[in-house]
Specification:
Distance between the termini: 12 Å
Number of helices: 7
CATH architecture of the largest domain: Alpha-Beta Barrel
Radius of gyration: 20 Å
Order of helices and strands: EEHEEEHHEEEHEEEEHEHEEEHE
Shape: globular
Number of strands: 17
Structural class: alpha+beta
Bound molecules: pyridoxal-5'-phosphate
């Protein structure tokens, strides 16, 4: 299967989507991006993109932080995703990574007066984290990047070195993933996921000002927990030891979906297995993203599978 990419204003086979080594984004990590999942429905032969609008709106916000200008609209970019799925002939779950990047061949790492371009690739995609077992997690010795350094509110390519350092440390130390603290020592988020705790029937998550990426799955989960389970949801400062004493804990993210946590720093969370509320929320989330709960079908953008190779 040839997968297609959108690159320099055209749809091209992915192996032709290559940048010059002097590209600013390659030199300095100056790109902003999104990860978008599409869920395949066999009956309707359709991929449903999960909250594409919110992802592109967030990408435009990230772009604003880095002085990136574009005439592309949310609709234009959603269309590139649809075309890539169709041209690539994918009939299954997908992951798309649209991106604005500083495309100029400019040596100083300034952000102003450097051209910006848009690109996107698509992949057939399955699990990112194992959502069936509880994850073993550590608190990272690395601190989360902060709003006054590399703003985590923007999904900035170069900031993923921070994510990579935490992931590598976790894997080398034999656990599945990591939780970041802020420089002040409060709980922030996972390496590439947001974090929730369940305590006394209440859902608790760090605030948007605790150097998290304002997750779209996080917002969806908060809405689902309130609407479907009548749960109280609190976004507040969270201390490290609250992690150890939570009844349940889980990560959320486009790639991670809803991933239960079994232990943190070798302390079992609750019973040390995926918690019952977490598993309920996981099911509710998967039903919503797969279009099984029509109350949330406004979150989904349908992309019909392409018949044969008509548009290639
Ligand atoms: C650092 C970080 N936090 C949180 C998330 C979760 O965000 P979302 O639910 O919008 O995918 C991601 C994933 O994109 C991430 O990279």
């Amino acid at each position: 299967m040839t997968t297609y990419a959108y690159f320099q204003g055209q749809y091209v086979p992915e192996d032709q989507a290559n940048i010059n080594i002097k590209t600013h984004a390659f030199l300095y990590g100056t790109s902003v991006f999104e990860g978008i999942r599409g869920y395949w429905n066999e009956q309707t032969e359709t991929v449903y993109l999960m909250r594409a609008r919110e992802h592109f709106e967030r990408m435009l916000q990230s772009a604003k932080i880095l002085f990136m200008e574009t005439s592309l609209t949310v609709e234009d970019m959603t269309e590139t995703c649809a075309q890539l799925i169709q041209k690539s002939g994918i009939r299954g779950d997908v992951y798309l990574q649209p991106r604005f990047y500083k495309s100029g061949h400019v040596v100083p790492p300034r952000l102003d007066e450097v051209d910006t371009d848009y690109c996107c690739f698509v992949l057939p995609f399955g699990a990112y984290l194992d959502v069936n077992k509880g994850l073993k997690v550590c608190v990272s010795s690395w601190r989360r990047v902060s709003d006054n350094a590399i703003p985590p509110r923007g999904k900035i390519g170069g900031a993923y070195v921070n994510t990579g350092l935490a992931m590598a440390e976790a894997h080398i130390n034999g656990v599945d993933d990591a939780i970041f603290l802020t420089e002040e020592g409060h709980v922030s988020e996972g390496s590439g996921m947001n974090l929730f705790l369940v305590k006394d029937g209440k859902l608790i998550t760090p605030r948007t000002t605790d150097n998290i990426l304002e997750g779209i799955t996080r917002a969806s989960l908060m809405e689902l927990a309130q609407n479907e389970l009548g749960m109280e949801v609190e976004a507040r400062l969270v201390n490290r030891t609250e992690l150890y004493l939570a009844d349940e804990a889980f990560f959320t993210g486009t790639a991670a979906q809803v991933a239960p946590i079994a232990s943190i720093d070798n302390r079992p969370i609750g019973t040390g297995k995926s918690g019952p509320i977490t598993l309920q929320l996981q099911q509710i989330y998967m039903d919503a993203v797969k279009g099984k709960n029509t109350k949330y079908s406004h979150w989904l953008t349908p992309v019909k599978a392409q018949v044969a190779s008509a548009t290639k």
